[in-house]
Design a protein that fits this description.
The protein is 50% helix and 0% strand. It has 98 residues and is mainly α. The chain has a domain of 60 residues: 434 Repressor (Amino-terminal Domain) (Orthogonal Bundle), CATH 1.10.260. Helix 2 runs parallel beside helix 5. The longest helix has 21 residues. The radius of gyration is 17 Å and the shape is extended. The relative contact order is 0.12. The mean pLDDT is 89.
Length: 98
């Protein structure tokens, strides 16, 4: 007997848009930046020193890494990347059709 698979939907690649959150594009961009910050901290093994490097309080680092980044502007997240020694460039291109 063949098991019936549960119904599912293919996502758009942006979970924030898929759940209907306003500003989904910005939320996804911020999540990607926070993910990069998390990767850098893990690579360098800097859980406690991260707050000093980024000039924010340890509770804010904890919130950020737990996904509570609504209180952080895009600009602030980019500044945190720079504080971690990253070069940040912004590349603006015409969107591909489709």
């Amino acid at each position: 007997m063949r098991r019936k698979l549960p119904k599912h939907e293919v996502g758009s690649g942006n979970v924030f848009a898929d759940v209907g959150l306003p500003g989904a594009g910005l939320h996804l961009l911020k999540a990607e930046i926070v993910n990069r910050i998390d990767d850098i901290l893990k690579e360098r093994r800097l859980p406690q020193a991260a707050a000093c490097l980024m000039d924010i309080g340890q509770p804010d680092v904890s919130k950020l890494l737990r996904g509570l980044f609504r209180g952080f502007s895009l600009e602030r997240l980019l500044v945190l990347l720079v504080a971690l020694g990253q070069d940040v460039t912004i590349d603006v291109r015409q969107r591909a059709r489709g």
